[in-house]
Design goal:
The structure holds 3 protein chains of 3 kinds. By secondary structure, chain A is an alpha/beta fold. Chain A is built from 10 helices and 10 strands. Chain A folds into 2 domains: 164 residues, 3-Layer(aba) Sandwich (Rossmann fold), CATH 3.40.50.300; 82 residues, Rossmann fold. A 6-stranded mixed β-sheet of chain A has the order 6-7-8-3-9-10, with helices on both faces. Chain A has a 4-stranded antiparallel β-sheet with strand order 2-1-4-5, covered by helices on one side. In chain A, strand 1 and strand 2 form a beta hairpin. The relative contact order of chain A is 0.18. By secondary structure, chain B is an alpha/beta fold. In chain B, helix 2 crosses helix 10, helix 2 packs across helix 11 and helix 5 packs across helix 6. Chain C contains 15 helices and 4 strands. In chain C, the strands form 2 sheets. In chain C, strands 1-2 form a two-stranded antiparallel sheet. In chain C, helix 3 packs antiparallel against helix 6. Classes of the chains: A alpha/beta, B alpha/beta, C mainly alpha. Chains in contact: A-C, B-C. The interface between A and C is large, with 41 and 33 residues.
Chain lengths: 255, 374, 335
């Protein structure tokens, strides 16, 4: 188990967003979080990334309780994420966005940059090389100097994933990666995710509504409704489960 | 040969007359910005003086080049350099605030251009400088006027009110205390205020407790008026004495009954003016602006006329009125100059030795009490 | 690229040497003013424009730098003579350093104070930065007024030795520009921009936003302190009333006009604002237009200046250079 959530409860004032939830993700798995809108999926993400502190319960990553860590610290532990609404840095180019992902691997100090000492050049060269290699993997080299938000939606998503990958994670959290994509783009995306999982030895935790995508990609799913678990198991079993169907009435994107 | 000589002389005469030159005086004033009121009143007096006379003995015309410095030090310095280097003025007149004058003084000094300030009272403006003069007396003197007047009238104990934010007030307070103590008076307390404050209850209670014979107020009129009201309201009966910073009509408008008997020293009071020069100025002032003549304008007029006197003296000495060294020497050596604000002599430090007046508020009007001589 | 940087440096150095020795004092003083304001504006741009943290700090740090440098430069005898309200404290009399060390100390002290401010402000969301720095500016001014033993209170300091010349101001301006560009074109500059664009996403990528903001803030403070010292040694006199919000406001105009986040823009903005205000002086004087005399109207200069600013901002809403440096303007897909 690379990631374990034990007895997580999240209360915001009088509202219980997540109620005594426990689950675990095996190393190398692609694990999906699904459920109707408002079920608590993104809240769970935020608890893993430490943007929220759970009211009760433990978060264990790589056998380490990470609840006391700040969000920027967990990146160094090996957790990276993308966002539901693609949050690229809009004033920067594609290359610069990806370079941000490499931030912690550039081992030079502020002074060394201000005074242009050798270590600055050493690591900048190294980083740029690795960033370009990353872009190559995603077929984005031609867009390196272009402003990131001027790309097509599908390509922007790729940039965001590339950026997250640059942090050298062990666990990648994808929040609705296929949102707003047409079937072709979704197909493309599935392929990329599978490829990087193998190439980088990742574990993937994702949130999705697109059941075809989920069916295709996920080894296991956890179905949430009103902050509670209503099913855990194979995607193919999930879609025929009574409780799941009931929760999703009207919310399903049919397979 | 004779004919040639006649023609040459004629040509030379015509040439000199035709060549009646412009002599430029550079003026730096805060015409806009937080000190604009002082800049505008200065210009008011300057304009009167200019209208009265802008020709020199040799027929040359005076040209005033006025630059606005927005009350800002950096601008004051730049404006001075512009006037000296670009406009090639012979003399610099300005500024009002001592801080700004102090930014200008080194520049005048370095370029050996005479500078005269009409209203800056901080001693350091002229200290150690050979090219800076002033037409007004310095703060130590004004503080001494107040102290002397207070002691002469039997006020033996005083509380001094200081506006900590204004260097004018702080300098004046120090001078008053020194002169007062030297004259045998006793300063029983010092009270601090901030310009802009409206509530002085704490300070007024302290004054009441100390029960002085007189209250020496070294700040400006808005706070003076408010403090007087609040003091009277709690039963403080001691009279107030202040300096030129309180001598504005608003003192009475805001202070009302409470400022009756408020005394203050000033550079000038048009009622006290007895000389012909003063009378002519006041008449022209009334005619043009239809309001009483103020000190700031009168001082500016005096500075201007002192410059003209110095220039004319140069002409008498056979030198050009644009000879900066000559003009400076004559300015610094001004003796017994009859100005609007009194008889002015410049001492070896470049400061004006002249009389001050003490006015008092009586029946809502500023009434002249006496002249105090150095 | 390197050739461009080197030739820029050589041309600047030659220009400075020429100007310092051959042009008239008036034009020289404008260049000195531009250089000092450029130093202040470039560093202000780092925290405000590049890192996107709305701060109102400059007048406070400039004051700190000006006072510290002035106190190091003025001789003990002059201090004894000058301090009119209270005798100078022994430590004040002991303070004596050469120009460069004095400037460095000014910068370091300012940076240290910035650090003290950052700790409470940046650990929560930086939204309070504006209010804290606004208050900070007031506090510094009040401290200067209320401690005459150390600062000569409201009377200020004068007879500061005039060390500043174009070699110093222009030289330090070039160094400041280089330092800023070096920071921007490094992982730290990228991180600052990331924080500006989307702080949460930046955190999610492992950036410690507290430290990046603090670095930016401390750097700004350092150069603002140095700039303050240069200003003191140029004007030869300083007083508390010089360091008000109006100074910060002037810098704000410069960086917004030039384009928040662009150092090129800030440089251009400084020339336009500081140089422009002097150039517009003719509007205060009497003019003859088509034979018609307008008469002298002091203040007209500022009215026209304000109108020009409004027009410029209407046509270039994000500033002249927006957030791009000169070389980036020509890149593809720029917004």
């Amino acid at each position: 188990m690379i990631l374990e959530l034990k007895n997580i409860t999240m209360r915001f004032g009088g509202v219980t967003a997540i109620d005594n939830l426990s689950f675990g993700v095996k190393t190398g798995e692609i694990y999906g979080l699904i459920g109707p809108n408002g079920a608590g999926k993104t809240t769970l993400f935020n608890i893993v990334t430490r943007n929220y502190t759970q009211t009760e319960g433990e978060v264990i990553f790589n056998h380490e309780e990470i609840s006391d860590l700040k969000p920027d610290m967990i990146v160094q532990r090996g957790i990276a994420r993308t966002f539901q609404n693609i949050r690229l840095f809009k004033s920067m180019s594609v290359l610069e966005n990806v370079l941000i992902g490499f931030h912690n691997q550039a081992n030079y100090t502020y002074f060394e940059s201000m005074f242009r000492l050798p270590r600055h050049f050493l690591f900048e060269r190294k980083l740029k090389k690795e960033a370009m290699e990353m872009l190559e993997r995603f077929g984005l080299v031609e867009f390196a100097e272009v402003n990131a938000t001027s790309l097509s939606y599908g390509n922007q998503r790729k940039v965001e994933i590339a950026r997250a990958l640059a942090t050298n994670p062990k666990l990648l959290l994808l929040d609705e990666p296929a949102a707003g994509m047409n079937p072709n783009e979704t197909e493309d995306l599935s392929e990329i995710i599978r490829r990087i999982k193998d190439e980088f030895g990742l574990t993937i935790l994702l949130i999705e509504h697109d059941m075809k995508f989920v069916n295709n990609m996920c080894d296991k799913v956890l179905v949430l409704d009103y902050g509670e678990e209503i099913f855990e198991g194979k995607p193919s079993d999930a879609i025929v489960n009574e409780k799941v169907i009931e929760a999703y009435l009207g919310d399903f994107k049919h397979a | 040969m004779k004919r040639f000589a006649k023609i040459s002389v004629a040509v030379a005469l015509v040439a000199t007359v035709g060549l009646a030159k412009e002599v430029k005086i550079g003026v730096v004033l805060p015409m806009t910005g937080p000190l604009a009121a002082f800049g505008q009143t200065s210009k008011g007096g300057l304009d009167i003086a200019y209208e009265q006379n802008h020709k020199l003995k040799n027929g040359d015309t005076i040209k005033l080049e006025i630059l606005d410095d927005r009350g800002d030090k950096v601008e004051a310095a730049t404006a001075t350099k512009r006037l000296i280097d670009k406009n090639k003025v012979t003399v610099i007149l300005g500024e009002v605030a001592s801080g700004n004058s102090m930014a200008m003084a080194p520049i005048a000094e370095k370029s050996k251009t005479p500078m005269i300030t009409h209203a800056s009272t901080n001693p350091r403006v002229t200290k150690g400088k050979k090219f800076v003069t002033r037409a007004c007396f310095i703060d130590p003197f004004q503080g001494a006027i107040g102290a002397k007047y207070a002691l002469d009238n039997g006020y033996k104990t005083a509380v001094v009110v200081v506006d900590a934010k204004q260097d004018y007030s702080v300098g004046l307070a120090k001078a008053f205390k020194k002169a007062y103590k030297n004259g045998g008076g006793k300063v029983v307390g010092t009270v601090l205020i901030n310009s802009g404050d409206k509530d002085f209850n704490a300070q007024v209670s302290t004054i009441k407790a100390k029960n002085p014979d007189i209250i020496a107020f070294t700040g400006y009129y808005p706070e003076a008026a408010l403090m007087a009201r609040q003091a009277r309201a709690v039963g403080v009966k001691a009279p107030f004495i202040g300096a030129d910073g309180v001598g504005f009509p608003e003192l009475v408008k805001i202070g009302g009954e409470a400022v009756e008997g408020f005394m203050y020293s000033d550079h000038f009071n048009e009622k006290a003016a007895s000389s012909d020069v003063a009378k002519a100025y006041i008449e022209a002032f009334h005619k043009k602006y239809n309001k009483p003549a103020d000190s700031m304008g009168a001082l500016a007029a005096d500075a201007y006329n002192m410059i003209l006197a110095a220039m004319n003296k140069c002409i008498d000495e056979g030198k050009a009125p644009t000879d900066k060294i000559c003009v400076n020497t004559n300015l610094r050596n001004t003796k017994n100059f009859q100005g609007v604000t009194g008889v002015i002599s410049i001492d070896k430090n470049g400061n004006a030795v002249k009389s001050g007046v003490v006015n008092e508020v009586k029946n809502g009007k500023f009434v002249y009490k006496t002249t105090v001589n150095p | 690229m390197k050739m461009v940087k080197i030739s820029f440096l050589i041309i600047s150095i030659l220009f400075i040497w020429f100007a310092q020795n051959y042009i008239d004092p008036y034009a020289l003083s404008i260049l000195n003013n531009i250089a000092i304001f450029a130093i202040l504006a470039l560093s202000y741009n780092l925290i405000n424009g590049v890192t996107g943290q709305f701060s109102l700090e400059p007048n406070g740090f400039v004051a700190i730098g000006a006072y510290i440098t002035a106190l190091f430069l003025i001789s003990a005898d002059t201090k004894v003579d000058m301090f009119a309200l209270e005798d100078p404290a022994p430590i004040i009399l002991a303070m004596s350093l050469d120009f460069l060390p004095a400037l460095l100390v000014s910068g370091v002290v300012a940076a240290f104070v910035a650090f003290i401010l950052s700790v409470p402000v940046f650990r929560v969301r930086g939204d309070y930065l504006a209010i804290v720095t606004l208050g900070f500016g007031f506090i510094i001014k009040i401290l200067a007024i209320n401690n005459p033993k150390y600062t000569n209170g409201a009377m200020g300091l004068n007879d500061i030795p005039e060390f500043s010349n174009l070699y110093w101001t222009g030289g330090i301006m070039i160094l400041t520009m280089l330092a800023m560009l070096n920071i921007i074109y490094s992982k730290f500059g990228r991180a600052m921009k990331a924080i500006r664009d989307d702080e949460d996403a930046a955190t999610a990528m492992g950036i410690n936003t507290f430290w990046i903001k603090t670095y930016a803030f401390m750097t700004s403070a350092f150069f603002e302190g140095v700039g303050g010292g240069l200003l003191a040694a140029l004007l030869t006199t300083i007083s508390p009333d010089q360091f008000t919000f109006l100074l910060t406001f002037q810098l704000l105009i410069i960086i917004v006009l030039g384009g928040l986040g662009s150092m090129t823009g800030t440089m251009v903005g400084t020339i336009l604002v500081i140089g422009g205000m002097e150039w517009l002086r003719f509007l205060d004087e009497n003019m003859t237009i088509f034979g018609y005399e307008t008469g002298a109207h002091p203040g007209m200069r500022m009215v026209v200046f304000a109108i020009l600013l409004i027009i410029m901002m209407l046509f270039a809403r994000k500033g002249i250079f927006q957030d791009k440096e000169l070389t980036e303007i020509f890149k593809k897909g720029s917004k």
